[in-house]
Design goal:
The chain folds into three domains: 11-196, Ubiquitin Conjugating Enzyme, CATH 3.10.110; 218-257, no CATH class; 258-304, no CATH class. It is built from twelve helices and eight strands. It has helices at residues 13-27, 101-104, 115-127, 137-145, 147-168, 173-176, 218-228, 240-244, 249-256, 260-279, 288-306, 334-347, and strands at residues 33-39, 42-51, 62-68, 79-82, 84-85, 189-190, 200-203, 209-212. A four-stranded antiparallel beta sheet has the order 1-2-3-4. A two-stranded parallel sheet has the order 5-6. Strands 7-8 form a two-stranded antiparallel ribbon. Helix 4 (137-145) crosses helix 5. It starts with 12 loop residues before the first helix and ends in a 9-residue tail after the last helix.
């Protein structure tokens, strides 16, 4: 009878698929992403590190994620959440769960999606928030109302994530992620607005509850009011709010309500209407060629009016076309002399003088 230790180990379909994902990830690991099982003996729980993309405000940040697969993989996606939760419109501040359609809605999940696709989607989400479906309304409102303040908040998150990464350096992730239950939300690291900066509800002498306005720096105050001002202190003074969002078309569209191309067309149309109301509608000045053509046309018209058609002396004349001999003493009539003078005058005209 064979020993029990010699029995082959049969793994589930999900186990084999996750192992295949692991081999594929090792061969083609994307930039700025690390991922491996949390413990060697359990391939269903993973830990991942995501770095912020280069040339974005999240560059330099490192954020830790927890992934949990189950026996339904790859029919359903794994459970994904941030352990170091960033301040982001599409990341839940309580659970750390990123708001991505195929993670939230199983009907949008495809079995062709890989571990690499999941992690790169989250990495891109940091730099490209979706303001249509925010799960952190404070972050979404800050992007729309005060982009400068949100940028500073992200920079603070990046610096804090570096400090957290430095404190965990050299420590097995299983010790600071696996030492508490995954459902223990208090064990996670969060980057959020300090409580003292939020609106505080106080009770006045009449017993009514009202909100105490949080303190605002002069820089944010100046940017906000300069952005909605309708006049300028100087002609060349730039709008600081528009300058802060000029490199981000998404923020421009959210702030102005229209794409940049439509705004330029609308400004051009309003300027034309203003000039028409103030100065009237004038035709554009004709070119030199057009003026010359008009003057030549007038001259030809004068010739047709004042000069009779000439008969070529070489043309063949019949008896019917030969003019009758002049009567009288052969003297020219007064009108004939006037015609000759007009012909002589027109022949002496210089066409270049007509352009003056």
């Amino acid at each position: 009878m064979a020993d029990d230790d010699s029995k082959p180990i049969i793994f589930s379909r999900a186990h084999l698929l996750i192992e295949r994902e692991q081999e594929h990830f090792k061969k083609q690991r994307p930039w700025g992403i690390e991922a491996h099982p949390l413990r060697p003996e359990n391939i269903f729980e993973w830990v991942a590190k995501i770095k912020g993309l280069r040339d974005t405000v999240w560059e330099g940040g490192t954020f830790i994620l927890y992934l949990k697969f189950d026996e339904n993989f790859n029919i359903r996606p794994p459970e994904v959440c941030f352990h170091t939760i960033p301040f982001h419109p599409n990341v839940d501040m309580i659970t750390g769960r990123p708001c991505i359609d195929f993670l939230d809605d199983y009907s949008r999940w495809k079995d062709s999606y890989t571990l690499t696709y999941i992690l790169t989607s989250i990495q891109n989400l940091l730099a490209n928030p979706n303001l249509n479906k925010p799960v952190n309304p404070e972050a979404a409102e800050m992007i729309m109302r005060s982009p400068h303040a949100y940028r500073q908040m992200v920079l603070d998150c990046v610096a804090a994530s570096q400090r957290v990464e430095g404190s965990y350096k050299g420590i097995d992730p299983a010790k600071y992620i696996g030492q508490t239950s995954h459902s223990d939300l208090e064990s996670r690291v969060r980057f959020k607005i300090p409580e003292e900066q939020k609106h505080i509800h106080i009770t006045d002498s009449a017993g009514k509850t009202r909100s105490k306005v949080a303190k605002l720096s002069f820089e944010d105050y100046h940017i906000t009011w300069s952005g909605i001002a309708t006049s300028k202190a100087k002609q060349d003074l730039k709008n600081p709010l528009l300058e802060a969002i000029k490199d981000n078309p998404a923020l421009q569209k959210a702030h102005l309500g229209l794409p940049q191309e439509e705004i330029k067309e609308e400004m051009k149309r309003q300027l034309e209407q203003h000039e028409t109301l103030m100065y009237g509608r004038f035709q554009s000045k004709p070119s030199e060629e057009e003026e010359k053509a008009v003057k030549l046309a007038r001259l030809n018209k004068m010739k047709k009016i004042y000069l009779p058609p000439r008969i070529s002396p070489t043309s063949f004349h019949t008896s019917e076309t030969i003019p009758p001999p002049p009567s009288g003493k052969g003297k020219d009539e007064p009108w004939e002399k006037e015609v000759d003078d007009l012909v002589a005058w027109t022949n002496k005209l210089d066409t270049t003088a007509l352009e003056v």
